[in-house]
Amino acid sequence: MNAKCILCERVDELDNREFKTKQLRNKPIRMYLCPECEHRIAINTISRVNSGHFNFHKPAVISNSELKKLIDTNTK
Ligand SMILES: [Zn+2]
């Protein structure tokens, strides 16, 4: 399976046996990041955390039906 990185638009050949590939195939909404972009983002995030101007927000918990509604309204 091929996946395009959402940041640099590089197309990668993914290993079909990997769990990540399976997840991506089953849920096309999930975005793919190539390892380089993932690494770059990780470094930026760590430096931001270390700068002290970064607050962790608890992820909002929404039910599956609410999520479905949200997706439906966004795709229309
Ligand atoms: Zn990339």
What does this structure look like?
This protein is 49% helix and 8% strand. With 76 residues, the chain is mainly alpha-helical. The mean pLDDT is 82. InterPro entries: DUF2197.
In short:
49% of the residues lie in helices and 8% in strands. It is mostly helical and 76 residues long.
Strand content: 5-15%
Number of separate helices:
3
Report the C-alpha radius of gyration, rounded: 16 Å
Whole-number tally of structural domains: 1
Parts with pLDDT < 50 across at least 5 consecutive residues: none
Termini separation comes to 28 Å
Number of strands: 2
Largest sheet: 2 strands, antiparallel
Name the strands of the widest sheet in spatial order.
1-2
Strand/helix succession: EEHHH
Mean pLDDT: 82
Helical coverage, percent range:
40-55%
- Shape, please? flat
How would you classify the helix and strand content by structural class? Answer: mainly alpha
Q: Which ligands, by name, code or SMILES, are bound?
A: zinc ion
Pfam families: DUF2197
Protein name: DUF2197 domain-containing protein
InterPro entries: DUF2197
Organism: Listeria welshimeri serovar 6b (strain ATCC 35897 / DSM 20650 / CCUG 15529 / CIP 8149 / NCTC 11857 / SLCC 5334 / V8)
Topology:
Blueprint: E1 2-4, E2 11-13, H1 19-26, H2 35-51, H3 64-75
Antiparallel strand pairs: 1-2
The structure holds zinc ion (ZN).
